[in-house]
Design goal:
It is a single chain. Helix 3 links the parallel strand 3 and strand 4. Helix 1 runs parallel beside helix 12 and helix 5 packs across helix 7. This protein folds into 2 domains: 118 residues, 3-Layer(aba) Sandwich (Rossmann fold), CATH 3.40.50; 183 residues, NAD(P)-binding Rossmann-like Domain (Rossmann fold, 3-Layer(aba) Sandwich), CATH 3.40.50. It contains 12 helices and 12 strands. By secondary structure, the chain is an alpha/beta fold. InterPro entries: D-isomer_2-hydroxyacid_DH, D-isomer_2_OHA_DH_cat_dom, D-isomer_DH_NAD-bd, NAD(P)-bd_dom_sf. One of its GO terms (molecular function) is glyoxylate reductase (NADPH) activity.
């Protein structure tokens, strides 16, 4: 059995596949595959291990309907036409759970970096601006006892909330379709309406999936309902916030700061005004980028592939087959 991987994958998952006697070909060029190139490659293989941002649409699936599995090296699967995969009976899997802590840590890092203007002060040193000190200049804000709002309190949001409660004694409110009873019991989290989440959060952290309903959700109207002192954090998907509206909200003082690990589009252009704002911290989508987490993700993807080849139930299927 032959597998095509769209990137060089972490060694733990690769070794698991190779020990099982499977042949893995990895894309090693420092550029992304075009849609046509991906189709051409996959037509020569039995499985796809998708570790890139290629979109898996119906056109791709119809030309690669022979694939036994498409294993994503990610928890998000918004780049896959799952309905088309179901229609064509091509199973798709993801890697949930194992990246929750690393992604939550990134959200926590962004929150603290924004609150203390860390990226801004680092740039001051680079440009030789660490000289005259003033007690009232370039101050950040405290997080102790503030209110953390979570939009989408699942695995990642739960870990983020735990970090904030432990470190800063923050109060936790959240907005979900349903209750998260575990978070309510463990952290004293309170489920509120979306409007209350906006009005009460000192830090609002987004941890929901990208869907047609959540696309562009954080726009001018939504930012206008947040506190002028609020920090907006997004480590989920860049398309959940309207970037132009976010820039305007920050420039006009509608909200205080923002921390982003995801942007729209990605990659962000180096002349984006967000990068020069004192109360903004932007990272290049590194939420799961630790040695341990990426290895765990690769092992999970490998186990999904092995299950497909062995005819056993897929551990992490997002299709309904």
């Amino acid at each position: 059995m032959k597998i095509f991987a769209t990137r060089v994958i972490p060694p733990d998952g690769l070794e698991l596949l190779q020990r099982a006697g499977l042949t893995v070909t990895q894309w090693t060029e420092k550029r992304g595959l075009s849609a046509a190139e991906l189709i051409a490659h996959c037509q020569q293989y039995d499985a796809l291990l998708l570790a890139s941002d290629n979109h898996i649409d119906r056109a791709f699936l119809e030309q690669c309907r022979h694939l036994k599995i498409i294993a994503l090296l990610s928890v998000g699967y918004d780049k896959v036409d799952v309905a088309a995969a179901n229609d064509l009976r091509i199973p798709v899997t993801n890697t949930p759970g194992v990246l929750s802590a690393a992604t939550a840590d990134t959200a926590f890092l962004l929150m603290l970096s924004v609150a203390r203007k860390a990226f801004f002060h680092y740039k001051r040193i680079l440009r030789g601006d660490w000289n005259f000190s003033e007690p009232t200049a370039n101050l950040g804000i405290d997080l102790e006892g503030k209110t953390l709002g979570i939009w989408g309190l699942g695995n990642i949001g739960h870990v983020m909330a735990k970090r904030c409660v432990s470190a800063f004694g923050m109060k936790v409110i959240y907005h979900n379709r349903g209750r998260n009873e575990a978070a309510e019991k463990e952290l004293g989290a309170v489920r509120v309406s979306f409007e209350a989440l906006l009005a009460q959060s000192d830090v609002l952290s987004v941890h929901t999936a990208l869907t047609p309903e959540t696309t562009g959700m954080f726009n001018k109207a939504v930012f206008s309902q947040m506190k002028p002192s609020a920090i907006f954090i997004n480590t989920a998907r860049g398309a959940i916030h309207n970037e132009g509206d976010l820039i305007a909200a920050l420039q006009q003082g509608v909200i205080w700061g923002a921390g982003l690990d995801v942007t729209n589009p990605e990659p962000m252009q180096p002349d984006n005004p967000l990068l020069d704002m004192p109360t903004v911290a932007v990272l290049p989508h590194i939420g799961s980028a630790t040695v341990e987490t990426r290895n765990a993700m690769s092992v999970m993807a490998a186990k999904n592939i092995l299950a497909a080849f062995n005819g056993t139930p897929l551990p992490n299927q997002v299709t309904s087959l």
